[in-house]
Amino acid sequence: VIGTADIVKRIPHRYPIMVLDRVIEVNPGENLVGLKAITANEPCYQRAIGQPPLDDYRYPPSLLLESWAQAAVVLATWDEPNPDVLTGKVELAALAKGVEFEGRVYPGDLVEHRVSLVRQLGPTSIVEGISVVGSSVVLRVGHFVLAMREMADVLAARRQPETV
Amino acid sequence: VPAYASATAPVIELVSSDGDVHVAAVTIDPRDPVFAGHYPGFPVYPGAYMMAVVDHTVRASTGLDLEMSAMRQAKFRSPVYPGDRVTVEVTVRPGDAEWAVSAVVTGPSGVATDMRLTYREGTP
């Protein structure tokens, strides 16, 4: 079992977007099972003073996918963990296909992410999988591509002058 | 439109609506707390937040209670940084059971993300 203190030694994400709590199973190069507990105290439920309460506390699909993707990053970088982007590399999502948000997730749910590594070609990893709550599938990810990029390249691209 | 939790609550300025096509502009707030964690020392806007910006645009521009049910495809082409001004163009096409949405987010260095999404009516 890989706890939170070990996860932060493997991926660069930190509060308030560190949305993976634990890894309970890993077969390096093959698959991984991760856990994310949803609580009503997540930053996404914060309301400004005077704002009316939320009408529904469903966990945002975008964060559910982010949470799954963080489990995918742990698997994809198992042999070369990348906890700090300033050391030279950054993992960026490149492509997602066939993502289905099948069920709503609420505070109190324990989400189990199941990730399989389909293929790894140098800095590019292709992963797929599902997320379940109890016996219900809440998320399906058909095809997800992660690209590990050199920070120097990312920064160079940023410095390019804008073209009109 | 009912209020649901979102990854982020950006200030979206609706620029235009023409039939199914809606355009919004968003300035990515450099003070967004997410940048402390994504990533320490190198703030870059998370793809999940980009999804949320598109989602806000779909709901705000149509005024409908729609809920994202699938992401058919999303390409993340170039990063978005704190302070960037992005344009979000969504095309929202109603269907029988679900709505088809295509979205293009354009930032200072060109297309940042394009997505094809499916929505369903969101009332639980």
What does this structure look like?
The complex is a heterodimer of chains A (164) and B (124). In chain A, strand 5 (124-133) and strand 6 (136-150) form a beta hairpin. Chain A is globular, with a radius of gyration of 17 Å. Chain A has 3 helices and 6 strands, in the order αββαββββα. Chain A has helices at residues 4-7, 61-76, 151-159; strands spanning 22-27, 31-37, 89-101, 110-121, 124-133, 136-150. Chain B is mainly beta and 124 residues long. Helix content of chain B is 13%, strand content 44%. Chain B contains 1 helix and 6 strands, in the order E-E-H-E-E-E-E. Chain B has one helix spanning 47-62; strands at 12-18, 21-27, 66-76, 85-93, 99-107, 110-121. Chain B starts with 11 loop residues before the first strand and ends with a strand. Classes of the chains: A alpha+beta (164), B mainly beta (124). Chain A binds chain B through residues 12-18, 42-45, 52-63, 65-66, 69, 84-86, 90, 92-101, 104, 151, 154, 157-158, 160, 162, and chain B through 2-7, 33-34, 36-42, 44, 46-49, 51-52, 55, 67-76, 78-79, 81, 108-109, 124. Strand 3 of chain A pairs antiparallel with strand 3 of chain B.
